[in-house]
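During the no-cost extension, the postdoctoral fellow (Dr. R.K.) reprocessed legacy sequence entries with the updated structure-token encoder. One reprocessed record is reproduced below for audit purposes.
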Amino acid sequence: MPSPPSATSVRFLGTGRLSLAAVAVCSALAALAAVALPAALGIAVDQLVTEGRIPWSALLLCAGLTAAEVLLDALVALLGGTTTAALTARLRTLLLDRVVRTEPRRGGAVPPGDLTTRLTANAADAAAVPVTAATAVAGVLLPLGGIVGLFLIDPWTGLALLVGAPSFVLLLRTLIRRTADAAADYQREQALIATRLTEALDGAATLRAAHTATREHARITEPLTALAAHGRRTWQIHGSAAGTSAVLLPLLSVLVLAVAGLRLAAGAISVGDLLAVSRYAVLAIGLGSLTGALGAIARGRSAAARLEPLLTLPPVPHLARTLPAEGPGTLELRAVDVVEDGKHLLRGVSFRVPGGTSLAVVGRSGSGKSLVAAVAGRLMDPDGGTVSLDGVPLDTVDPVLLRHEVGYAFARPTLWGETVEDTIAAGAVRPTDTGIRTAARAASADGFIRLLPHGYQTPLDQAPLSGGERQRLGLARAFAHAGRLLILDDATSSLDTVTERQVQQALARYTGRSTRIVVAHRISSAVQADRVLWMDDGEVRAVGRHTDLWADPDYRQVFHHAPEPPAAPLPPTDGAHGRLTGGLTDPGAAEAVPVTVSASQRPTEDPAPPAPPHRQRRSGPEAP
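Re-encoded structure tokens follow.
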């Protein structure tokens, strides 16, 4: 048996309650008109035979019933179509809202191809069920009305029809069960094909380089055999039901008419009654018209079962607390755990980043670096422990305010917007034109943007972008919306050495204004950071300066046997004295020791990044 609908599903159906009620009422009225018509025709025939005159009143009644049935059926078609379209759109919106509002790791549990199938075909099948069920009211009233009409005219004709009722009920029950099973199998194979096709499209360049397109084509189309088999099974089920009905229903009709003829010969019923019996017999055996509706409902229930995991995705909980107006952006993680399928991906992660300083997160692949970045800005909630920004737990901060204050850049940024400028501006609040261009210069993107056909106004789909250029647009977007916390998750991996150096210098100018978390694989990022968080198998291996950690051979292994410790970094300075500002400490660690840097060592060629757009600039060194 299908599982009961969730509270979300009930609320979804409730949004179209009036439209569904109108469809059901119109369907019922049309069915009642169709049931009353045979009786009216019988009366008209009897008056014509017995009285020898045209029964105008009875004929007008028949005409009115016929017109009412046609009009009501037209209204059912119109209301049913518009209601189904509205429910489909509402269901898809609800599903997307659930996917977007939940944690990315939960929303990403369904592969993109499968998710597309659920949002398109499965959502349409599931949303059609309420209207199909409402119109099925007429499908039930017609045969029931026919049976009642037969018993009212002559009980023997009704009993003749009921002789075949058990076999017909068994036929319908088998049809529903087998159709639901076949539909579920078909939908699973359909989703598998969509998933594999999406994977192939995402990796088209890799497939071409590896010359494995033929093999991948075979992998994608391999489920078509099973899909075709499930499709044939569905049609075989319906064909078998239709064939059985084609034999059973005419036999029942002949049996009813034969009994009615005998009753007419015996004088128990009139000629008009015989005509009505013939019409009611057609309505009664019309129970077979329910097979299509029942099959659609079975497919819709199977589709709804595939949508239920998405509808029950929990939204990220939040409260409405605010952050200190002039907080420096101090980030602290305490005993943070992340568990998935019983495995600890992060275990007891604790560290503190003083406001306005930078932290490089390094470690081997799979050590948990990106998870640290995700929990640090509340792209996901930890399963244990707390994450706080300026002393306020992130899970209590108003989500709109949090997105104003936390900026992200990723290794493979998703770009959206009509133009390149819109892509950089996309965020909680649109920055000014000056802020957009300043952010682009800080990300070393201004040069290639100006070479595009229409510069910043170039439509995004007409801008040929390399991987590095896409990363720079993602960085520009993050710079344009930088708040008190800026997180770069391997966001410079596709940049050349010179461009990466320019981006690092732009990041350094945020000292005192934004706290920076940089997930990195390159040694240069660790060199430039105030402190380094060394992750190993989901745990903190060490927190310290890069030059101090370099003495550990295991730390050097993270950077693939770099030949020697690099030169000391060029830290951001205050303009007056060339003194290192800020520092990074884990709980209980000492503050950074001031280091003097000559003016000639300070980078001056790069533009200053934009100030955080959502609050005043904090105290600290001004950008040169």
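Confidence is low (pLDDT under 50) at residues 1-10, 561-606, 614-624. The chain has 22 helices and ten strands. The remaining legacy entries will be reprocessed before the final report is submitted.
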